[in-house]
Protein backbone atom coordinates (compact mmCIF):
# COMPACT_ATOMS: atom_id res chain seq x y z
CA UNK A 1 0.00 0.00 0.00
CA UNK A 2 1.29 3.47 -0.76
CA UNK A 3 1.80 6.03 1.98
CA UNK A 4 -1.17 7.92 0.62
CA UNK A 5 -3.28 4.86 0.84
CA UNK A 6 -2.22 4.24 4.38
CA UNK A 7 -2.99 7.74 5.54
CA UNK A 8 -6.31 7.72 3.79
CA UNK A 9 -7.34 4.40 5.24
CA UNK A 10 -6.09 5.29 8.69
CA UNK A 11 -8.11 8.48 8.68
CA UNK A 12 -11.20 6.69 7.50
CA UNK A 13 -10.82 3.97 10.08
CA UNK A 14 -10.36 6.40 12.92
CA UNK A 15 -13.33 8.42 11.77
CA UNK A 16 -15.64 5.42 11.58
CA UNK A 17 -14.64 4.41 15.05
CA UNK A 18 -14.95 7.80 16.61
CA UNK A 19 -18.14 9.13 15.15
CA UNK A 20 -19.87 6.39 13.24
CA UNK A 21 -21.75 6.78 9.98
CA UNK A 22 -21.99 10.59 10.04
CA UNK A 23 -18.36 11.01 9.18
CA UNK A 24 -18.58 8.62 6.28
CA UNK A 25 -20.23 11.21 4.06
CA UNK A 26 -17.56 13.80 4.72
CA UNK A 27 -14.83 11.26 4.15
CA UNK A 28 -16.31 10.30 0.79
CA UNK A 29 -16.50 13.94 -0.24
CA UNK A 30 -12.83 14.36 0.57
CA UNK A 31 -11.99 11.33 -1.52
CA UNK A 32 -13.98 12.72 -4.43
CA UNK A 33 -12.13 16.03 -4.25
CA UNK A 34 -8.76 14.37 -4.55
CA UNK A 35 -9.82 12.04 -7.36
CA UNK A 36 -7.34 12.37 -10.16
CA UNK A 37 -7.42 12.65 -13.91
CA UNK A 38 -4.90 10.71 -15.95
CA UNK A 39 -2.80 13.86 -16.37
CA UNK A 40 -2.94 14.81 -12.70
CA UNK A 41 -2.23 11.34 -11.36
CA UNK A 42 0.65 10.56 -13.71
CA UNK A 43 3.95 10.02 -11.92
CA UNK A 44 7.57 9.67 -12.99
CA UNK A 45 9.62 7.28 -10.89
CA UNK A 46 12.10 9.28 -8.86
CA UNK A 47 14.52 6.42 -8.23
CA UNK A 48 16.77 4.70 -10.71
CA UNK A 49 20.18 4.60 -12.32
CA UNK A 50 19.74 8.12 -13.66
CA UNK A 51 17.96 11.15 -12.26
CA UNK A 52 14.44 11.74 -13.50
CA UNK A 53 13.69 14.83 -15.55
CA UNK A 54 16.32 14.29 -18.23
CA UNK A 55 15.16 11.30 -20.25
CA UNK A 56 11.62 12.14 -19.13
CA UNK A 57 9.47 13.41 -22.01
CA UNK A 58 8.91 17.16 -21.72
CA UNK A 59 6.58 18.33 -18.99
CA UNK A 60 4.54 21.38 -19.89
CA UNK A 61 6.12 23.59 -17.22
CA UNK A 62 9.57 23.84 -15.74
CA UNK A 63 11.61 25.93 -13.33
CA UNK A 64 15.36 26.11 -12.84
CA UNK A 65 16.43 27.29 -9.39
CA UNK A 66 20.02 28.45 -8.89
CA UNK A 67 21.43 28.41 -5.33
CA UNK A 68 24.81 29.33 -3.88
CA UNK A 69 26.11 27.47 -0.85
CA UNK A 70 26.23 29.60 2.27
CA UNK A 71 29.71 30.48 3.41
CA UNK A 72 29.52 28.22 6.47
CA UNK A 73 28.03 25.23 4.65
CA UNK A 74 30.40 22.32 5.15
CA UNK A 75 30.75 19.00 3.38
CA UNK A 76 28.59 17.38 6.09
CA UNK A 77 25.92 20.03 5.72
CA UNK A 78 25.94 19.69 1.94
CA UNK A 79 25.32 16.00 2.41
CA UNK A 80 22.41 16.71 4.74
CA UNK A 81 20.99 19.18 2.28
CA UNK A 82 21.04 16.60 -0.51
CA UNK A 83 19.51 13.95 1.76
CA UNK A 84 16.65 16.26 2.64
CA UNK A 85 16.16 17.51 -0.92
CA UNK A 86 16.11 13.91 -2.13
CA UNK A 87 13.45 13.07 0.44
CA UNK A 88 11.34 16.05 -0.61
CA UNK A 89 11.69 15.26 -4.31
CA UNK A 90 10.87 11.56 -3.91
CA UNK A 91 7.73 12.30 -1.92
CA UNK A 92 6.49 15.07 -4.18
CA UNK A 93 7.10 12.94 -7.29
CA UNK A 94 4.61 10.36 -6.10
CA UNK A 95 2.00 12.91 -5.08
CA UNK A 96 2.80 12.91 -1.38
CA UNK A 97 3.45 16.04 0.66
CA UNK A 98 6.98 16.93 1.66
CA UNK A 99 7.90 16.28 5.29
CA UNK A 100 6.69 18.60 6.68
CA UNK A 101 4.42 20.38 4.25
CA UNK A 102 2.11 23.23 5.22
CA UNK A 103 0.10 22.89 2.03
CA UNK A 104 -0.15 19.12 1.66
CA UNK A 105 -3.17 19.22 -0.63
CA UNK A 106 -1.15 20.99 -3.31
CA UNK A 107 0.99 17.85 -3.63
CA UNK A 108 -1.91 15.58 -4.53
CA UNK A 109 -1.69 15.84 -8.30
CA UNK A 110 1.94 15.26 -9.28
CA UNK A 111 1.29 15.52 -13.04
CA UNK A 112 4.66 13.88 -13.84
CA UNK A 113 6.54 16.04 -11.35
CA UNK A 114 10.30 15.60 -11.39
CA UNK A 115 13.07 17.38 -9.51
CA UNK A 116 16.61 17.06 -10.84
CA UNK A 117 19.72 18.22 -9.01
CA UNK A 118 23.07 19.45 -10.31
CA UNK A 119 26.29 20.87 -8.92
CA UNK A 120 28.00 23.92 -10.37
CA UNK A 121 31.77 24.44 -10.36
CA UNK A 122 31.55 26.36 -7.07
CA UNK A 123 29.98 23.38 -5.32
CA UNK A 124 33.16 21.41 -5.88
CA UNK A 125 35.63 24.16 -5.06
CA UNK A 126 33.83 25.46 -1.95
CA UNK A 127 33.57 21.96 -0.48
CA UNK A 128 37.15 20.97 -1.27
CA UNK A 129 36.02 18.46 -3.89
CA UNK A 130 37.95 19.81 -6.88
CA UNK A 131 39.59 16.42 -7.41
CA UNK A 132 36.14 14.97 -8.05
CA UNK A 133 35.15 17.33 -10.86
CA UNK A 134 33.93 15.21 -13.78
CA UNK A 135 36.01 14.97 -16.93
CA UNK A 136 35.25 17.78 -19.35
CA UNK A 137 33.25 19.78 -16.82
CA UNK A 138 34.09 23.47 -16.58
CA UNK A 139 32.52 26.88 -17.08
CA UNK A 140 32.07 27.83 -20.72
CA UNK A 141 34.59 30.27 -22.17
CA UNK A 142 33.49 33.87 -22.66
CA UNK A 143 31.85 34.15 -26.09
CA UNK A 144 31.69 37.38 -28.05
CA UNK A 145 27.97 36.94 -28.67
CA UNK A 146 27.24 36.75 -24.93
CA UNK A 147 25.75 39.59 -22.94
CA UNK A 148 25.51 37.71 -19.68
CA UNK A 149 23.92 39.16 -16.57
CA UNK A 150 24.68 37.77 -13.12
CA UNK A 151 21.02 37.28 -12.21
CA UNK A 152 20.78 34.50 -14.79
CA UNK A 153 24.30 33.11 -14.68
CA UNK A 154 26.09 30.47 -12.67
CA UNK A 155 25.36 29.01 -9.25
CA UNK A 156 26.68 26.28 -6.98
CA UNK A 157 23.51 24.19 -7.13
CA UNK A 158 20.67 23.86 -9.59
CA UNK A 159 17.30 22.28 -9.00
CA UNK A 160 15.36 21.71 -12.19
CA UNK A 161 11.70 20.99 -11.52
CA UNK A 162 9.13 19.98 -14.11
CA UNK A 163 5.43 19.18 -14.04
CA UNK A 164 2.48 19.24 -16.38
CA UNK A 165 0.67 21.42 -13.85
CA UNK A 166 1.86 24.90 -12.88
CA UNK A 167 0.17 24.82 -9.46
CA UNK A 168 1.83 21.55 -8.52
CA UNK A 169 5.09 22.96 -9.80
CA UNK A 170 4.81 26.15 -7.73
CA UNK A 171 4.23 24.08 -4.61
CA UNK A 172 7.22 21.86 -5.29
CA UNK A 173 9.40 24.90 -5.92
CA UNK A 174 8.38 26.28 -2.55
CA UNK A 175 9.01 23.06 -0.65
CA UNK A 176 12.42 22.43 -2.21
CA UNK A 177 13.44 26.05 -1.76
CA UNK A 178 12.53 25.93 1.92
CA UNK A 179 14.78 22.91 2.37
CA UNK A 180 17.65 24.28 0.31
CA UNK A 181 17.74 27.68 1.96
CA UNK A 182 18.94 26.32 5.29
CA UNK A 183 22.20 25.58 3.51
CA UNK A 184 22.23 27.86 0.51
CA UNK A 185 20.93 31.16 -0.83
CA UNK A 186 18.75 31.53 -3.89
CA UNK A 187 20.54 33.24 -6.73
CA UNK A 188 17.93 33.12 -9.45
CA UNK A 189 14.87 31.26 -10.65
CA UNK A 190 13.96 30.83 -14.28
CA UNK A 191 10.60 29.57 -15.44
CA UNK A 192 9.68 28.10 -18.79
CA UNK A 193 7.10 26.08 -20.65
CA UNK A 194 6.24 24.09 -23.73
CA UNK A 195 2.80 23.05 -24.92
CA UNK A 196 0.29 21.73 -22.39
CA UNK A 197 -0.37 18.03 -22.12
CA UNK A 198 -2.94 16.83 -24.61
CA UNK A 199 -2.58 19.76 -26.99
CA UNK A 200 -0.26 17.87 -29.33
CA UNK A 201 0.88 14.25 -29.54
CA UNK A 202 3.54 13.57 -26.92
CA UNK A 203 5.99 12.58 -29.63
CA UNK A 204 5.59 15.81 -31.59
CA UNK A 205 8.63 18.06 -31.54
CA UNK A 206 8.07 21.34 -29.69
CA UNK A 207 8.07 24.81 -31.19
CA UNK A 208 9.90 27.80 -29.77
CA UNK A 209 8.59 31.37 -29.69
CA UNK A 210 10.09 32.06 -33.12
CA UNK A 211 7.61 29.44 -34.30
CA UNK A 212 10.40 27.06 -35.22
CA UNK A 213 10.15 23.32 -34.72
CA UNK A 214 12.96 22.90 -32.22
CA UNK A 215 14.57 19.61 -31.18
CA UNK A 216 14.21 17.45 -34.30
CA UNK A 217 17.67 15.94 -34.06
CA UNK A 218 17.35 14.83 -30.43
CA UNK A 219 18.15 11.22 -29.59
CA UNK A 220 15.05 9.18 -28.74
CA UNK A 221 14.66 8.27 -25.06
CA UNK A 222 15.62 4.73 -24.24
CA UNK A 223 17.95 4.30 -27.19
CA UNK A 224 21.65 3.54 -27.25
CA UNK A 225 22.18 6.84 -28.99
CA UNK A 226 20.57 8.64 -26.08
CA UNK A 227 22.64 6.81 -23.51
CA UNK A 228 25.82 7.41 -25.45
CA UNK A 229 25.23 11.14 -25.79
CA UNK A 230 23.85 11.86 -22.34
CA UNK A 231 25.06 9.47 -19.63
CA UNK A 232 28.61 9.77 -18.40
CA UNK A 233 30.82 6.82 -17.81
CA UNK A 234 32.92 6.50 -14.69
CA UNK A 235 35.35 9.39 -14.76
CA UNK A 236 35.47 9.94 -11.83
CA UNK A 237 33.62 6.87 -10.62
CA UNK A 238 30.94 8.75 -8.62
CA UNK A 239 29.76 10.39 -11.85
CA UNK A 240 28.94 7.17 -13.74
CA UNK A 241 25.33 7.51 -14.89
CA UNK A 242 25.36 11.26 -14.39
CA UNK A 243 25.28 13.95 -17.02
CA UNK A 244 26.40 17.52 -17.61
CA UNK A 245 24.00 20.39 -18.17
CA UNK A 246 24.60 23.59 -20.10
CA UNK A 247 21.85 26.07 -19.27
CA UNK A 248 21.77 29.19 -21.43
CA UNK A 249 19.15 31.89 -21.25
CA UNK A 250 18.75 33.07 -24.81
CA UNK A 251 16.79 36.29 -25.26
CA UNK A 252 14.84 36.17 -28.52
CA UNK A 253 13.93 39.46 -30.10
CA UNK A 254 10.47 38.69 -31.38
CA UNK A 255 10.04 42.24 -32.64
CA UNK A 256 12.97 42.22 -35.07
CA UNK A 257 12.15 38.61 -35.98
CA UNK A 258 8.68 39.84 -36.93
CA UNK A 259 10.26 41.93 -39.68
CA UNK A 260 11.17 38.81 -41.62
CA UNK A 261 8.82 37.09 -43.98
CA UNK A 262 8.42 33.33 -43.86
CA UNK A 263 11.14 32.69 -46.43
CA UNK A 264 13.63 34.82 -44.55
CA UNK A 265 12.85 33.02 -41.33
CA UNK A 266 13.26 29.63 -42.95
CA UNK A 267 16.68 30.25 -44.49
CA UNK A 268 18.03 31.54 -41.17
CA UNK A 269 17.62 28.05 -39.78
CA UNK A 270 17.46 25.90 -42.90
CA UNK A 271 14.15 24.30 -41.97
CA UNK A 272 10.55 24.88 -42.96
CA UNK A 273 8.41 26.61 -40.42
CA UNK A 274 5.38 24.48 -41.30
CA UNK A 275 6.74 21.15 -40.11
CA UNK A 276 10.45 21.53 -39.41
CA UNK A 277 11.53 19.66 -42.54
CA UNK A 278 14.93 20.65 -43.91
CA UNK A 279 14.55 23.02 -46.85
CA UNK A 280 15.77 20.19 -49.06
CA UNK A 281 13.17 17.72 -47.75
CA UNK A 282 9.47 17.17 -47.22
CA UNK A 283 9.09 15.63 -43.77
CA UNK A 284 10.53 16.77 -40.44
CA UNK A 285 12.94 13.89 -40.07
CA UNK A 286 14.18 13.83 -43.66
CA UNK A 287 17.96 14.01 -43.87
CA UNK A 288 19.16 17.41 -44.99
CA UNK A 289 20.98 17.65 -48.33
CA UNK A 290 23.75 20.11 -47.60
CA UNK A 291 24.99 19.99 -51.21
CA UNK A 292 21.68 20.95 -52.82
CA UNK A 293 21.76 24.18 -54.87
CA UNK A 294 18.88 26.30 -56.09
CA UNK A 295 18.43 27.58 -59.67
CA UNK A 296 20.71 30.53 -58.89
CA UNK A 297 23.46 28.13 -57.84
CA UNK A 298 23.22 29.01 -54.15
CA UNK A 299 23.01 26.45 -51.37
CA UNK A 300 19.40 25.68 -50.51
CA UNK A 301 20.52 25.49 -46.90
CA UNK A 302 22.79 28.55 -46.71
CA UNK A 303 26.22 28.59 -45.12
CA UNK A 304 24.93 30.85 -42.37
CA UNK A 305 21.89 28.67 -41.57
CA UNK A 306 21.66 27.57 -37.96
CA UNK A 307 21.15 23.91 -38.76
CA UNK A 308 24.23 23.78 -41.01
CA UNK A 309 26.33 25.40 -38.29
CA UNK A 310 24.91 23.31 -35.44
CA UNK A 311 24.73 19.93 -37.11
CA UNK A 312 27.53 17.44 -37.05
CA UNK A 313 28.22 14.00 -38.37
CA UNK A 314 30.57 13.43 -35.48
CA UNK A 315 28.64 11.31 -32.96
CA UNK A 316 30.93 12.67 -30.24
CA UNK A 317 29.54 16.17 -30.80
CA UNK A 318 25.87 15.29 -30.40
CA UNK A 319 23.83 15.94 -27.27
CA UNK A 320 20.29 16.22 -25.92
CA UNK A 321 18.45 19.54 -26.20
CA UNK A 322 15.62 20.00 -23.72
CA UNK A 323 14.81 23.70 -23.95
CA UNK A 324 11.86 25.52 -22.44
CA UNK A 325 10.36 28.74 -23.74
CA UNK A 326 10.21 31.70 -21.45
CA UNK A 327 7.84 34.62 -21.78
CA UNK A 328 8.17 37.08 -18.93
CA UNK A 329 5.64 39.63 -20.04
CA UNK A 330 5.90 42.75 -22.15
CA UNK A 331 8.58 45.38 -21.56
CA UNK A 332 7.55 48.97 -20.94
CA UNK A 333 8.46 49.90 -24.52
CA UNK A 334 5.97 47.33 -25.75
CA UNK A 335 8.52 44.79 -26.96
CA UNK A 336 8.69 41.19 -25.90
CA UNK A 337 10.63 39.76 -22.97
CA UNK A 338 10.83 36.28 -24.35
CA UNK A 339 13.27 33.61 -25.25
CA UNK A 340 14.55 30.17 -24.58
CA UNK A 341 15.93 28.40 -21.53
CA UNK A 342 18.30 26.35 -23.64
CA UNK A 343 19.08 23.23 -21.61
CA UNK A 344 21.54 20.79 -23.18
CA UNK A 345 22.53 17.52 -21.53
CA UNK A 346 25.64 15.55 -22.41
CA UNK A 347 28.25 13.26 -20.95
CA UNK A 348 31.09 15.72 -21.50
CA UNK A 349 30.74 19.46 -22.11
CA UNK A 350 34.26 19.90 -23.40
CA UNK A 351 34.16 17.29 -26.14
CA UNK A 352 30.47 17.40 -27.08
CA UNK A 353 29.31 20.96 -26.53
CA UNK A 354 32.18 23.36 -26.96
CA UNK A 355 32.87 22.60 -30.65
CA UNK A 356 29.24 23.16 -31.58
CA UNK A 357 28.90 26.35 -29.54
CA UNK A 358 32.09 27.73 -31.10
CA UNK A 359 30.74 27.15 -34.61
CA UNK A 360 27.54 29.02 -33.70
CA UNK A 361 29.55 31.88 -32.24
CA UNK A 362 31.64 32.10 -35.40
CA UNK A 363 28.66 32.14 -37.76
CA UNK A 364 24.95 31.64 -37.29
CA UNK A 365 22.39 34.00 -38.79
CA UNK A 366 20.11 33.30 -35.84
CA UNK A 367 22.53 35.35 -33.71
CA UNK A 368 20.93 38.37 -35.38
CA UNK A 369 17.77 37.89 -33.34
CA UNK A 370 19.09 36.03 -30.30
CA UNK A 371 21.31 37.08 -27.41
CA UNK A 372 22.63 34.78 -24.67
CA UNK A 373 22.00 36.65 -21.41
CA UNK A 374 22.49 33.84 -18.91
CA UNK A 375 24.84 30.88 -18.77
CA UNK A 376 25.59 28.14 -16.27
CA UNK A 377 26.97 24.61 -16.21
CA UNK A 378 26.19 21.78 -13.81
CA UNK A 379 27.30 18.23 -13.13
CA UNK A 380 24.16 16.19 -12.48
CA UNK A 381 24.87 13.14 -10.35
CA UNK A 382 23.44 9.74 -11.24
CA UNK A 383 20.15 8.67 -9.72
CA UNK A 384 19.74 6.85 -6.43
CA UNK A 385 17.73 4.03 -4.94
CA UNK A 386 15.30 4.25 -2.00
CA UNK A 387 17.33 4.94 1.12
CA UNK A 388 20.03 6.69 -0.88
CA UNK A 389 20.30 10.29 -1.96
CA UNK A 390 21.30 12.26 -5.02
CA UNK A 391 25.02 12.98 -4.87
CA UNK A 392 25.80 10.17 -2.44
CA UNK A 393 28.76 9.00 -4.49
CA UNK A 394 30.35 12.43 -4.13
CA UNK A 395 29.30 13.34 -0.59
CA UNK A 396 29.31 10.07 1.34
CA UNK B 1 -5.60 -2.03 -5.47
CA UNK B 2 -5.15 0.51 -2.72
CA UNK B 3 -8.77 1.52 -2.86
CA UNK B 4 -9.85 -2.10 -2.52
CA UNK B 5 -7.88 -2.49 0.67
CA UNK B 6 -9.31 0.72 2.07
CA UNK B 7 -12.82 -0.33 1.24
CA UNK B 8 -12.39 -3.66 2.97
CA UNK B 9 -10.87 -2.12 6.05
CA UNK B 10 -13.52 0.55 6.26
CA UNK B 11 -16.28 -1.99 5.87
CA UNK B 12 -14.81 -4.26 8.50
CA UNK B 13 -14.55 -1.50 11.04
CA UNK B 14 -17.95 -0.07 10.19
CA UNK B 15 -19.44 -3.47 10.92
CA UNK B 16 -17.56 -3.72 14.16
CA UNK B 17 -18.66 -0.22 15.13
CA UNK B 18 -22.30 -1.06 14.55
CA UNK B 19 -21.94 -4.21 16.60
CA UNK B 20 -20.41 -2.23 19.40
CA UNK B 21 -23.17 0.35 19.29
CA UNK B 22 -25.83 -2.32 19.29
CA UNK B 23 -24.38 -4.00 22.29
CA UNK B 24 -23.29 -0.95 24.22
CA UNK B 25 -26.64 -0.39 25.89
CA UNK B 26 -27.06 -3.80 27.44
CA UNK B 27 -23.73 -5.39 27.87
CA UNK B 28 -20.07 -4.74 28.29
CA UNK B 29 -18.14 -3.68 25.24
CA UNK B 30 -15.74 -6.43 26.14
CA UNK B 31 -18.37 -8.86 24.98
CA UNK B 32 -17.53 -8.13 21.35
CA UNK B 33 -13.86 -8.59 21.94
CA UNK B 34 -12.45 -11.68 20.33
CA UNK B 35 -8.93 -11.47 21.64
CA UNK B 36 -7.10 -11.93 24.88
CA UNK B 37 -5.65 -8.77 26.39
CA UNK B 38 -2.43 -10.63 27.16
CA UNK B 39 -1.80 -11.18 23.49
CA UNK B 40 -1.50 -7.42 22.94
CA UNK B 41 0.52 -6.58 25.97
CA UNK B 42 3.78 -6.44 24.08
CA UNK B 43 2.58 -4.70 20.94
CA UNK B 44 4.74 -1.67 20.20
CA UNK B 45 3.18 1.01 18.03
CA UNK B 46 4.94 1.67 14.74
CA UNK B 47 5.79 5.10 13.46
CA UNK B 48 6.58 6.78 10.16
CA UNK B 49 7.51 10.24 8.93
CA UNK B 50 8.75 11.41 12.31
CA UNK B 51 10.32 14.85 12.32
CA UNK B 52 11.23 17.56 14.75
CA UNK B 53 11.11 21.29 14.21
CA UNK B 54 14.67 22.53 13.87
CA UNK B 55 15.89 24.94 16.54
CA UNK B 56 19.02 26.28 14.86
CA UNK B 57 19.65 28.94 17.51
CA UNK B 58 19.15 28.90 21.24
CA UNK B 59 17.66 31.98 22.84
CA UNK B 60 18.96 32.96 26.24
CA UNK B 61 21.00 29.78 26.29
CA UNK B 62 18.04 27.49 25.93
CA UNK B 63 15.22 26.60 23.58
CA UNK B 64 12.23 24.43 22.92
CA UNK B 65 10.80 22.48 20.05
CA UNK B 66 8.38 19.71 19.24
CA UNK B 67 8.27 16.34 17.56
CA UNK B 68 5.67 15.21 15.06
CA UNK B 69 4.86 12.08 13.08
CA UNK B 70 2.41 9.29 12.41
CA UNK B 71 2.01 6.58 15.05
CA UNK B 72 0.11 3.44 14.16
CA UNK B 73 -1.39 0.92 16.51
CA UNK B 74 -1.79 -2.55 14.98
CA UNK B 75 -3.24 -4.05 18.16
CA UNK B 76 -6.81 -4.65 19.30
CA UNK B 77 -6.59 -2.14 22.15
CA UNK B 78 -6.04 1.58 22.29
CA UNK B 79 -2.49 2.50 23.24
CA UNK B 80 -1.56 5.88 24.68
CA UNK B 81 1.64 7.81 24.00
CA UNK B 82 2.72 8.91 27.47
CA UNK B 83 5.76 10.99 26.56
CA UNK B 84 9.41 10.22 26.38
CA UNK B 85 12.98 11.06 27.09
CA UNK B 86 15.73 12.52 24.96
CA UNK B 87 19.48 12.18 25.02
CA UNK B 88 20.68 13.97 28.16
CA UNK B 89 23.01 16.06 26.06
CA UNK B 90 19.96 17.57 24.33
CA UNK B 91 17.60 17.97 27.28
CA UNK B 92 17.12 16.29 30.63
CA UNK B 93 13.55 17.52 30.92
CA UNK B 94 10.93 14.84 30.35
CA UNK B 95 9.22 15.06 26.97
CA UNK B 96 5.52 15.62 27.59
CA UNK B 97 2.61 15.08 25.27
CA UNK B 98 0.91 18.30 24.23
CA UNK B 99 -2.15 19.45 22.39
CA UNK B 100 -3.29 22.76 20.95
CA UNK B 101 -6.64 24.05 22.13
CA UNK B 102 -8.61 27.27 22.10
CA UNK B 103 -8.40 29.14 25.38
CA UNK B 104 -11.09 31.30 26.95
CA UNK B 105 -9.85 34.29 24.99
CA UNK B 106 -10.35 32.40 21.72
CA UNK B 107 -6.65 32.03 21.09
CA UNK B 108 -5.06 28.78 19.99
CA UNK B 109 -2.63 27.76 22.70
CA UNK B 110 -0.78 24.62 23.49
CA UNK B 111 -1.02 22.81 26.77
CA UNK B 112 0.14 19.58 28.25
CA UNK B 113 -2.10 16.65 27.47
CA UNK B 114 -1.67 14.97 30.80
CA UNK B 115 -3.52 11.79 29.93
CA UNK B 116 -1.37 11.24 26.87
CA UNK B 117 -2.19 10.88 23.18
CA UNK B 118 -4.34 7.89 22.28
CA UNK B 119 -3.53 5.78 19.26
CA UNK B 120 -6.80 4.00 18.53
CA UNK B 121 -6.77 0.24 18.18
CA UNK B 122 -6.08 -0.68 14.53
CA UNK B 123 -5.78 3.02 13.84
CA UNK B 124 -3.27 5.79 13.82
CA UNK B 125 -2.75 9.24 15.18
CA UNK B 126 -0.90 12.04 13.45
CA UNK B 127 1.12 14.46 15.53
CA UNK B 128 1.33 17.70 13.58
CA UNK B 129 1.72 21.45 14.06
CA UNK B 130 -1.41 22.94 15.54
CA UNK B 131 -2.37 19.64 17.08
CA UNK B 132 -0.81 16.85 19.10
CA UNK B 133 2.95 16.88 19.56
CA UNK B 134 5.70 15.73 21.86
CA UNK B 135 7.25 18.76 23.51
CA UNK B 136 10.93 19.43 24.15
CA UNK B 137 11.86 21.93 26.87
CA UNK B 138 15.17 23.28 28.08
CA UNK B 139 17.24 22.46 25.03
CA UNK B 140 20.93 22.50 25.88
CA UNK B 141 22.06 22.76 22.28
CA UNK B 142 20.61 23.83 18.96
CA UNK B 143 19.04 21.40 16.52
CA UNK B 144 20.13 22.16 12.97
CA UNK B 145 18.08 21.38 9.89
CA UNK B 146 19.01 17.86 8.83
CA UNK B 147 20.08 16.72 12.30
CA UNK B 148 18.64 13.42 13.49
CA UNK B 149 17.27 13.41 17.03
CA UNK B 150 16.77 10.08 18.79
CA UNK B 151 14.27 9.80 21.62
CA UNK B 152 12.61 7.05 23.62
CA UNK B 153 8.83 7.15 23.48
CA UNK B 154 6.88 5.47 26.28
CA UNK B 155 3.49 3.87 25.77
CA UNK B 156 0.65 3.00 28.14
CA UNK B 157 1.03 -0.73 27.64
CA UNK B 158 4.47 -0.62 29.21
CA UNK B 159 6.36 -0.72 25.94
CA UNK B 160 8.70 1.91 24.59
CA UNK B 161 10.30 2.60 21.25
CA UNK B 162 13.44 4.31 20.06
CA UNK B 163 12.37 6.88 17.51
CA UNK B 164 14.59 8.83 15.11
CA UNK B 165 13.31 12.21 14.02
CA UNK B 166 14.86 14.32 11.29
CA UNK B 167 15.01 18.06 11.97
CA UNK B 168 13.22 20.14 9.37
CA UNK B 169 12.63 23.83 8.82
CA UNK B 170 9.04 24.93 9.19
CA UNK B 171 7.56 28.34 9.81
CA UNK B 172 4.59 27.33 11.91
CA UNK B 173 4.34 25.26 15.11
CA UNK B 174 4.71 28.52 17.02
CA UNK B 175 1.73 28.15 19.31
CA UNK B 176 1.88 30.07 22.53
CA UNK B 177 2.29 27.87 25.54
CA UNK B 178 -0.38 28.60 28.10
CA UNK B 179 0.13 26.63 31.29
CA UNK B 180 -3.20 27.88 32.69
CA UNK B 181 -5.31 27.13 29.65
CA UNK B 182 -6.59 23.85 31.00
CA UNK B 183 -7.48 25.35 34.41
CA UNK B 184 -9.59 28.17 33.09
CA UNK B 185 -7.53 30.63 35.11
CA UNK B 186 -6.22 33.88 33.77
CA UNK B 187 -3.32 33.03 31.48
CA UNK B 188 0.01 33.48 33.14
CA UNK B 189 2.82 35.20 31.26
CA UNK B 190 3.25 32.76 28.44
CA UNK B 191 6.19 31.74 26.36
CA UNK B 192 6.05 31.52 22.63
CA UNK B 193 7.64 28.66 20.81
CA UNK B 194 9.50 30.34 18.05
CA UNK B 195 12.59 28.72 16.75
CA UNK B 196 12.21 30.07 13.25
TrEMBL record, chain A:
Q: Which residues form the Dyp-type peroxidase N-terminal domain?
A: 51-193
Q: Where is the Dyp-type peroxidase C-terminal domain?
A: 205-384
| Secretion signal span | 1-18
User: Is Metal-binding set as a keyword in this record?
Assistant: yes
Give the family, as the similarity comment puts it.
Belongs to the DyP-type peroxidase family.
| Cofactor field | heme b
A Gene Ontology cellular component where this protein is annotated is: cytosol
Q: Please give the NCBIfam families that the UniProt record associates with this protein.
A: Dyp_perox_fam (TIGR01413)
Q: Does the keyword NADP apply?
A: no
Stated EC number for the protein is 1.11.1.19
The source organism is: Alpinimonas psychrophila
Keywords of the record, alphabetical order, are:
Heme, Iron, Metal-binding, Oxidoreductase, Peroxidase, Signal
Name of the protein in question = Dye decolorizing peroxidase
What's the domain of life for this entry? Bacteria
GO molecular function per UniProt: heme binding; metal ion binding; peroxidase activity
Specify the taxonomic lineage.
Answer: Bacteria, Bacillati, Actinomycetota, Actinomycetes, Micrococcales
UniProtKB/TrEMBL annotation, chain B:
Q: Which UniProt keywords apply?
A: Signal
Record's signal peptide: 1-24
What InterPro entries would the database entry show? LpqE-like, Lxx211020-like, PCuAC_sf
Q: Where is this region: Disordered?
A: 176-196
Q: Where are the transmembrane segments?
A: none
Name of the protein in its database record:
Copper chaperone PCu(A)C
